[in-house]
Amino acid sequence: MIATERSCILLIEDEPAIADTVVYALQTEGFEPLWRMTGQEGLLAFREHGPALIILDIGLPDASGFDLCRELRRIRPAPVIFLTARASEIDRVVGLEIGADDYVVKPFSPRELTARVKAVLRRTLGSQADHPSRETAVSAQALFEINEESCEIRYDGQVLILSRYEYRLLQVLLKRPGRIFSREMLLQQVWDHPDHSLDRTVDTHIKTLRAKLRAIRPDDNPIKTHRGFGYSLSLES
Ligand code: CA
Questions:
Q1: Is residue 1 a part of any domain in this protein?
Q2: Which of 34, 35, 227, 232 is the most exposed place for a label (fewest CB within 10 A)?
Q3: Where residue 69 sits, what CATH number does that domain have?
Q4: pLDDT tier at 91, thresholds 50, 70, 90
Q5: What is the pLDDT, as a whole number, of residue 37?
Q6: 118-148: b (≥16 Cβ within 10 Å) or e
Q7: Which helix (H) or strand (E) holds 155?
Q8: One domain for residues 213 and 180
């Protein structure tokens, strides 16, 4: 969608070195970045400029990114991508009470971040433009039933016999239908020793998971591959 070009992106980040690279990368991609160093300044800029998306550092000098996100959302709903420095923060972001649209772990490549920005904008603009996609999302997701206490997932009424990692993978994907997870993100969230695991490990488990889903509904493939990005649970039924 062409509307993503020339979009104002508000970056709230107190480290100039990081901000510089992000601003440069966004400009290169045709966005109009706006950089603020503190939560207060960020809030002001948010009110003034009405950015299309916010990139928000969790550790700011005057506020926590989580609290700031809540405040911003109270003013106006806008997509947020968190920048996080610590693995311990990821759980809260992924916990999603805050409703982040995505997150990037430092250090990250500016390219990775701009790719996420584009994906989030495409998703949010898309979901605003055509509401039917929301309804089909519900119906695709409704095929899954998850019982976290017994670690059991039913698909179209049938219990899936899953390995531990298959279960966790599907659990993560199910929590955010439509959201694209990179292999790196899935490794971090699903595997016990992500540093010793390979991206290929994710692919292998996705493959076996798909086969198990196909055994129940042969014509559906709810797990989509996004080349160069990763995987998502499909929004289309
Ligand atoms: Ca910081």
A1: no
A2: 227
A3: 3.40.50.2300
A4: low
A5: 97
A6: bbbbebbbeeeeeeeeeeebeebbebbebee
A7: strand 152-155
A8: yes
pLDDT tens digit string along 27-40? 999 999 999 999 99
- Ligand 1 center to 100 CA (angstroms): 17
**Taking a C-beta distance cutoff of 8 angstroms, is the pair 103, 84 a contact?**
yes
CA of 107 to the centre of ligand 1 (A): 12
- Using pLDDT thresholds of 50, 70 and 90, give the confidence band for residue 205: very high
53 Cα to the center of ligand 1, angstroms: 19
Question: What's the total number of domains in the chain?
Answer: 2
Q: What's the CA-to-centroid distance between 34 and ligand 1, angstroms?
A: 17
CA of 182 to the centre of ligand 1 (A): 23
Question: What is the 82 CA–ligand 1 centroid distance (Å)?
Answer: 11
Ligand 1 center from residue 43 Cα (angstroms): 16
Distance 58 CA to ligand 1 centre (A): 7
Whether 3 maps to a domain, the answer reads: no
Structural domain that includes position 113: 8-126
pLDDT at 2: 43
- Identify the domain boundary among 99, 126, 153: 126
pLDDT in tens, 110-161: 988 999 899 888 877 765 544 443 434 445 567 888 888 888 899 988 899 9
- Indicate whether 111 and 165 sit together in one domain: no
Verify cis geometry, omega within 30 degrees of 0, for the bond prior to 194: no
Residue 58 CA to residue 94 CA, distance in Å, equals 13
